[in-house]
Structure formats: structure tokens, C-alpha cells
């Protein structure tokens, strides 16, 4: 991802926290290069699992997560945040009317084409959905169609299978009752040979702070060994 000063980078994500968890250092890198970064967030993440917090428990989760998104984006140096207004589809269960996954790929990609054109996007950044969340995968499919009619370069953050295997091993020790004990290890994340690793050590601390801003959400990196945490967060893994 070669971004230069003054270029326009549009980061398209499904939920508040996707700008920081998978894409935080790609945003920080763009901002450091002098780019103008816009985050387009498809939903307000109201189906996310909520971490209890006496300060915000009385508020709707959508409201809390939208505020967290704005705070994390500001920390990362994002210039503009736009919500696309779809409902969070959730990880599984029936797809509700108005949710992201209820939108056809055609209509979603047409919307993205219009937004990318309006924003004069030169780079598009997103997450490839390698964690298996259906909103992430649906949005990725629409973005892949949308960029075909655009000159913008697409960068997709990903989760390498090798690190996901290490993550499962550590989770099995930390939370022996986790559902991940039963998961197909080969299907986790993306094959390593489809990814390029880019050093992002200089953005590691900032990325951690952006992640911590999402107080209503449990970080999948919490409690990991420092070595594995750095392997995930001090390196960007992007699709070739
Ligand atoms: Zn998400």
C-alpha cells in the first residue's frame, strides 16, 4: 500500500471497531503519509456482544458504539466518518430487513461506487472477512465489485492462518470451554501464502489505544502472550 501526501484513502468497514482491530495501522500509516482518510462504516454494530460498563449500560449499544467509532477514528487521525445506516446482521440467525446482509451485492456495490466517486477515492481499505463474520464477507464482496468500476487501489487487511492457529492454542489455555476447541483449524483466517506482511511496529501503540477505545467490545487480543499480540498488531497482513 503506497500512499502519498494529499491522497484520498477511504476505509470501508462493517462495524465500529473494524477500523481499529483489523485496519488500525493501515489508517495510521496513511495518516502519517499525509493522506486524507475517510471511514465509511456500514452499521452501528448493535448486534455486537456487549461488555458491561456502568457508565454506558443505560444507553443503546448502537449509540455507544458510534461514539467509540468517532473516538477511535479521531485518535487514528481520520478526517471524516460516515455511517451508511444499515442494521448489523449479527454473526448468525435470520437476516433482518434493513440489515447489511439483506442488501443485494448489486445495490450495495452501486452505493459504494457513488460514495467512492463522491470522495474521489484513490485507495480503498477494508477487511477481507477472514474471521468468518457474514457482514465482513458481504461487504467485501460488494467492495470487490465496486472497485472494478473505479481506479482506486484496493488493500484488504487479513488474518493469517498461522497466527489464528497460535491464537486458538492460547485461547484453549485461557478459556478451555471456548467454542474454538471444535473449529476446523485449516479454515481459520486466510492462507499465509495469499498474504504479504508489512512491518507496522511504529503504529503498534496507537493501534492498541484505538482498540481500547472500543470499551463495549472484548478485544480478541486481550490476554494473549505479548509475542502473539505483536505478531497480530505490530504487522499488517494484507491480501496479495
Ligand atoms: Zn466487524
Outline the structure in words.
This protein is an alpha/beta fold and 240 residues long. The protein contains seven helices and seven strands, in the order E-H-E-H-E-H-E-H-E-H-E-H-H-E. The strands form two sheets. Strands 3-2-1-4-5 form a five-stranded parallel β-sheet, with helices on both faces. Strands 6-7 form a two-stranded antiparallel sheet. Helix 3 packs across helix 4. The radius of gyration is 17 Å and the shape is globular. It binds zinc ion.
Features:
alpha/beta; Rossmann fold; five-stranded parallel β-sheet; two-stranded antiparallel sheet; 7 helices; 7 strands; binds zinc ion
Summed up, what is this model?
This protein is an alpha/beta fold. The chain has a single domain, classed as 3-Layer(aba) Sandwich (Rossmann fold).
Provide the CATH top-level class. Alpha Beta
Distance between the termini: 10 Å
Question: What is the count of distinct domains?
Answer: 1
Mean pLDDT: 96
Major β-sheet annotation:
5 strands, parallel
The count of DSSP E runs of length 2 or more, i.e. the number of strands, is 7
Helix amount: 25-40%
Q: Based on helices, strands and strand pairing, what is the structural class?
A: alpha/beta
CATH homologous superfamily title: LmbE-like
What is the C-alpha radius of gyration, as a whole number of Å?
A: 17 Å
Question: What is the fold named in CATH at topology level?
Answer: Rossmann fold
Shape: globular
In N-to-C order, the SSE pattern is EHEHEHEHEHEHHE
Bound molecules: zinc ion
Report strand order across the widest sheet: 3-2-1-4-5
Q: Please report the number of helical segments.
A: 7
Strand content: 15-25%
**Low-confidence segments:** none
CATH architecture: 3-Layer(aba) Sandwich
Amino acid at each position: 500500500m503506497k500512499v502519498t501526501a494529499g491522497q484520498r484513502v477511504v476505509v470501508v468497514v462493517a462495524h465500529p471497531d473494524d477500523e481499529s482491530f483489523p485496519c488500525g495501522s493501515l489508517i495510521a500509516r496513511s495518516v502519517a503519509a499525509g493522506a486524507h482518510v475517510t471511514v465509511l462504516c456500514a452499521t452501528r454494530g448493535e448486534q455486537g456482544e456487549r461488555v458491561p460498563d456502568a457508565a454506558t449500560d443505560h444507553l443503546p449499544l448502537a449509540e455507544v458504539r458510534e461514539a467509540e467509532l468517532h473516538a477511535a477514528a479521531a485518535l487514528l487521525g481520520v478526517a471524516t466518518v460516515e455511517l451508511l445506516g444499515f442494521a448489523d446482521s449479527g454473526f448468525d440467525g435470520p437476516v433482518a430487513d434493513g440489515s447489511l446482509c439483506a442488501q443485494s451485492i448489486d445495490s450495495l456495490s452501486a452505493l459504494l461506487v457513488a460514495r467512492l466517486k463522491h470522495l474521489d477515492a484513490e485507495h480503498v481499505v477494508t477487511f477481507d472477512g477472514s474471521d468468518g463474520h457474514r457482514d465482513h464477507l458481504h461487504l467485501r464482496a460488494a467492495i470487490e465489485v465496486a472497485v472494478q468500476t473505479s481506479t482506486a487501489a484496493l488493500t484488504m487487511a487479513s488474518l493469517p492462518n498461522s497466527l489464528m492457529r497460535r491464537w486458538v492454542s492460547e485461547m484453549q489455555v485461557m478459556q478451555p470451554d471456548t467454542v474454538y476447541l471444535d473449529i476446523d483449524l485449516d479454515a481459520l483466517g486466510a492462507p499465509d501464502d495469499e498474504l504479504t506482511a508489512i512491518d507496522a511496529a511504529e503504529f503498534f501503540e496507537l493501534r492498541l489505544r484505538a482498540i481500547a477505545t472500543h470499551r463495549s467490545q472484548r478485544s480478541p487480543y486481550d490476554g494473549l502472550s505479548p509475542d502473539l499480540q505483536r505478531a497480530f498488531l505490530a504487522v499488517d497482513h494484507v491480501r496479495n
